[in-house]
Amino acid sequence: MKGVVFNLLEAVVRRDYGDDTWEALLEAAEADGAYTSLGNYPDDEMMRLVGAASAALKLPADDVVRWFGRNALPLLAQKHPNFFTAHKSTRPFLLTLNDVIHSEVRKLYPGADVPVFTYDTSSSDVLVMHYSSPRKLCALAEGFIEATAGYYAEEVSLDQPECMNRGDHRCVLRVAVRKPGA
Amino acid sequence: MDNLGDADAQLARLKKRFDREQRARAESEAIAERALSELYTKKKEIELLQLITVAANEASTVDDAMRTALDGVCAHTRWPVGHVHLTDPAGALLSTKLWHLDHPERYKAFRDVSEALTFAPGTGLPGRVLEGGKPAWIVDVTKDDNFPRSKAALDCGLRAAFAFPVLVGDEVAAVMEFFSDEPAEPDDAKLTIMAHVGSQLGRVIERRRAEDALRLASQHKSQFLANMSHELRTPLNAIIGITEMLQEDARDANREDEFEPLDRVVRAARHLLAVINDILDLSKIEAGKMDLHVGSFAIASVVEDVVHTVGTLAAKNNNALRLECPADIGVMSADQTRIRQALLNLVSNAAKFTENGTITISVDRAVAETGEWIVIAVADTGIGLTAEQKGRLFQDFVQADASTTRKYGGTGLGLAISRRFCQMMGGDITVESEPGKGSTFTIRLPAGGTSSAAPVQPATPQPTPRARSIDRAPLILVIDDEDSVRDVTTHFLRREGFAVTTANGGREGLRLARELQPAAITLDVMMPDLDGWTVLAAIKGDPATAGIPVVLMTIVDEKNRGYSLGAADYMVKPVDWSALAGVLRAICQSAGRSVLVVDDDDTMRSGLRRVLHENGWQVAEAENGRVALARLAEARPDVIVVDLLMPEMDGFELLDALRSNGAWRDIPALVLTAKDLTDDDRTRLNVGIERILQKRDRHELLGEVRDVLDRCIERRRGENVAVP
């Protein structure tokens, strides 16, 4: 996994829980802690950090990941505003993930192993996204999506009729977005 | 205490964090450096591929492209040695002379060993690539079991190697190998780039093969045409020559009854020859290989000759032939043979397509803004042409309509060829016609030459006085592999007063030329043992025979090649016997005669020297009048050729000096000039000048000088005979 993800995690943990918490997490996870955004680090190290946080906060690991996603996305939007300002709402932004966002990620971080989504756009109300990755980080996707809706000031409801963490061969994210008051 | 403990703990935490940050920074720098170095490598790879692509597109030869690739790959890898092996037809690799060597002397032993080896599929590094069709890498050739050159490599300090195929499709056309002076681990990225290099070079080879195939096909076609024409014309020439011999005998013995059937044989054979010649002419024009031989000639004699030739044909259809040609029509400068051919075609067509009518040939000189033109019109009162027929008339293989071919015969090529000849000479053939009333075909050609009313040449070749043999008859050596040609040539040349010896091939010809020192040689080009070109080169290359003039006699029309090899003249079979006799006579007369060429133009002097020398003249040269006087004092020439405008002492002054000297007064002088002569100039030159020739086309001028000198010698010789 790319070092940039570790950097984001470190940033949100320090911000919301303080430096000591981050030190404690590193210690508990037996992680090295020296992460540079361009470096590559074992996926397992991220899982250990998530596990340590889950134990410390007494929250399910998925909730920790979702929280991470929700909080990391605004930092990304701050750093790379053009991807966000190009759209007015969540749905068109999500549809550019493969072709625009992730292809740019690959340019910035050569070798980045980003997931490929497939979309079912047959409904104009509900966007269906298929996610399939050995990392099984659908919760991170959920967090990112929720925060994206927040960025565009929209309300989102998410559910997963299929999920790899429940033994399915893929995750299916149903994303329904509403403008507030609509 | 607590505060202190807190501060310590905080310090420890900060120190830990600082350590982590330092490590992260070092790592990020390492990553950035790696990325930069990769970027640099990619850039170099792109440059290499760009170099190879440009070379592949622009190199004029495969070798050039390979050489660029060798240098480019060696520069890219910084490896000191690169080499190319080419696949031979048997499927093994042959070492080439194509190398990149940083230090040629250091790697000489390796080079020598490599060039002495061939590699079968699977053998050595090149063989492995040949077999697999893929790049290969050897970490250390001195430790490799399958590297026959390991000892030489060790001695020269070569260790790592890689090689890759130059692929044309799936075929390994060549293998390029490279060597380093250190062992090196395999580098897949490098081999991937090299595979690209190999496929680019493969395209060069592919393109070259396609070009070669095209060129070969075209050569085969030309060769086929040349062979066929040889195969067809050789027996025809025998038929014509021998029949003419029989005709001569019949005439001499007054056996008139035999004469007419023999005449029919000759005419039929000549017709067949004409058809073959038409087809060959057209293919030569199409191929841009038709040469014109421009010279100045009397118009009337050519036209009269054609009218005479067509007489029988016209009479057959009960046609009257009328010739309207002013007596002072004079000369023109063009290719006489081709004009004769075109006119003959027009008049025979008129005679063919007209019955009980009149064919009028009118010749005129027309002055237009574009210069002087000779206009020859052939008008008939025959079947005429519709507008539509006129449109198709000059196309190849097309007669006015298909039924015409059946009724009147012919190849349908004559008009197309005639018109192209006229166009090549700067003119054209046009037609006006009305169906049922008749047609008028008009040849218009630039007059080119001088409009002097006096014909320069006698209208018909002068019969040769037998009395010429007051001298011992000059010996002509006839070299030809065909019995019939030797017989016929001997027969005619003896009648013309020459002594003749024959040789049936190039080797015997060379031997006889050396032993007999003949006055001239006639030489066939296509012979089985040694071809004529080789024989000609051998004659000109041997000081014992170099001075003997050679007349090429051939059905292959390659005059320029003949002249460039030093031939004195060039006759295309079937040979016009009186023309051959004329040429040989001129050669034999000028043999041993000397001429002084005075001109400040080097090119002109050397051109004249070559042409005159080939005709047996001894040539002295001077670049101005002063030098000419010095030469005159050394040896008195038989003739002087002089340019008018020269530095130091010009032609006028030189000629004045000649006339005021009793010993030199009667040396005939031929004036060459680019100057537009004023009346004063002409008056000044009027005395003792053989002829004034305007400098125009050099080739044409050389021919004229030769002719004038030959005639001048002939006349003086006549005077000498008359006044012993």
UniProtKB/TrEMBL annotation, chain A:
Domain Heme NO-binding: 2-158
Residues that span the membrane, as ranges: none
GO molecular function ontology, one term from the record: heme binding
Gene3D superfamilies per record: H-NOX domain
SUPFAM superfamilies for the chain: Ligand-binding domain in the NO signalling and Golgi transport
Superkingdom of this protein's organism: Bacteria
Protein name: Heme NO-binding domain-containing protein
Automatic annotation (TrEMBL), chain B:
Keyword Phosphoprotein: yes
Domain Response regulatory intervals: 475-588, 594-710
Catalytic activity: ATP + protein L-histidine = ADP + protein N-phospho-L-histidine
GO cellular component, one term: plasma membrane
Residues found modified as 4-aspartylphosphate: D524, D643
Domain Histidine kinase: 227-449
A Pfam family per the record: HisKA
Enzyme Commission (EC) number: 2.7.13.3
Domain of life: Bacteria
Entry keywords, A to Z: Coiled coil, Kinase, Phosphoprotein, Transferase, Two-component regulatory system
The name this protein goes by in its record: histidine kinase
Organism of provenance: Bradyrhizobium ivorense
